[in-house]
Amino acid sequence: MIAVRLLIDVFIVIGAFFALAGTLGLLKMPDTLCRMQASTCIPTLGIICVAIAGILYAAVFQHDAGNAVKIAVIGIMVVLTNPLGAHVIARGAYKADLMKDKSLKLNPDDYGRDFYE
Known about the structure:
Blueprint: H1 2-28, H2 32-60, H3 65-95, H4 112-116
């Protein structure tokens, strides 16, 4: 039981570290696409670690499969919706022309010239 508790604590510390790294990245990154990366991808790993810790705690110490399933569903939903959120943020930033470095401007029609020439 002590090894499982230690594993749970390690997962929580790793999750908290990634949540903190995502927050600091959101504050320190220079442009919208970098902030999008810091606000969606990094905390996803943190949430996965905290969800694993919660599942282990609910299954081993509480002996409650219902709570473990709820935590797993929450983790799965976050993993499925964060990439969608990142895509919407990036698309909105591109359409609003919020790119800081205009030389790096993306062209979504790169493949259009191959089809229409």
